[in-house]
Amino acid sequence: MASHSLYRLVRLAQRLLPPLIAAVVVVFELALLPYRHVDGLLWLRLGFYGLVGPLVTYAVLEWIAQETLEKVRAERALEEANRRLLAAGRVFREALESENLEEAVSRIARALGETLGYPVALEAEGVHAGEECGGMRVELPGLKGYLEACPPEPERVFLEVLAHEVAGALQSVVARSRDRLTLFEVDQALKAEANLDRLLEGLLERIQAWAEAEGGGVLLLDEEGFLVPRVVRNLALPSHPFLPDGVWKGSLEGPVFVDEETLALPLKARETVGVLVLKGKGLSRRIPFLSFLASQVALAVRNAQAYLRAEELAINEERTRIAREIHDGIAQSLAFMALKLDLAERLLAKDQEAALKALTEVKETLRAQIREVRRSIFALRPIDLERYGFLESVRRYAHAFAEQAGFRVQLALPERVGLSQASELVLFRVLQEALTNAAKHGKPSRVEVELLPLGERGARLVVRDNGKGFQNAEAQGLGGFGLTQMRERVEARGGHFQVRSEPGKGTEVVAEVPY
User: Fold this and answer.
1) Are 485 and 437 in contact (CB under 8 A)?
2) How far from 277 is each of 187, 224, 233, 249, CA to CA, in Å?
3) How far apart are CA 116 and CA 136, in angstroms?
4) pTM for the full predicted model
5) H-helix or E-strand containing 24?
6) Alpha-carbon separation of residue 273 from 201, 303, 418, 439 (angstroms)
7) Residue 497, strand partner residues
8) H or E stretch including 463?
9) Which of 15, 104, 218, 226 could form a disulfide with 241 if both were Cys (CB 3.0 to 4.6 A apart)?
10) Which chain positions lie within coiled-coil regions (predicted)?
11) CB crowding 89-103: b at 16 or more within 10 Å, else e
């Protein structure tokens, strides 16, 4: 440092210059002594210049040294202040660049040691990093942990200020991790639950835990514009549907406080579907993230409602299929058997052989229709996709159907697929219709069911049999859906549908759907 070097130079001059000046004065006066008279004036000059001059020089140099020393101290203080400011700045920078608490503690401890120039150890919420030195230790406010340092000149006030900065940075990392964990849990809940009420209960529980709210509720708009309480916890809300007015009407447009501690946020995904209500302290500072979570809940509600509408449509289509099959199949077969029985009754006295033949045809037709009725009853059994999951439901249904229909089934299923509930339902319906068509029309001995993931966001279902096959697949209209209806359902999800078949070479049904 330049000021420090100057200080050393002034001190050296302070030691050397006064005696040097005195020596010069003495030498000068003695050198002129032969040319002067020795009197009292000589000794006066020697005393004045030999003593006063060095003393004045010493005093001036002392003053310069003190000023230089103050400058050195000021520069050191400024350097230390800059180092401390840099350390505080690095604390927040390292925290912002960290993904989790463990990484943040490690990076902050390393950055403090590098910036301050002495050992620093840090511990927060059981996570430890840095170099233990047995030095001064201060607690981290708001967290379970401490900051330990071994500075050359211990200064507790600075370490306490630094501990506050470190605690604030680490608390932001913890809050960020909680936000990410909440989003992950919400996303998992959306994928795992199809029942709307249980879905809303799970989402509300997670949101309440994140917001540290003591109460909460979800109210949905019905077709007439009434707010209907669906899930309510520790809140004084009406238990019956009511028209939104006042603050409730405002809550459909943006976040509003119903009272001092009760916040209402709109469940809005393109259009408002309801209101999320939370009761607790400090909710105003959490509004941005709560609004985002409310939009996720709104998407879940819309998806669940669309799922229910799809189920209703599927039920109606299934009723239409059963009515058509009863009319075209079982009803005509019963009429045929009635005619054959009448014929057998008339022939019984005249031609017993012809009567027995008619009875045999009735018996075979009756057995075929019994098998068909059993297949229809099996197809109508509810498959609990929600309970078993998509892949397990496919496995159970395929094996049970193959056992009922009398053919072997070979399954090739992945460990997991990334599909929405609506896409899972579409693929499952395609599987049901493809197996039904194979049993009813193809008469195969073996059916292969293959499910292939399309990356992480989609799947391809292939149902392949070794049955009789057919030509002009689009015109056949086989099965309850009919091939055209299967294609429409798959393509409505943004997917692709294809049927390949040749007489004597079996049939292959391929359906691809994205996430």
Assistant:
1) no
2) 20, 21, 10, 13
3) 14
4) 0.42
5) helix 2-31
6) 16, 11, 26, 44
7) 511
8) strand 458-465
9) 226
10) 349-376
11) ebbeebbeebeebbb
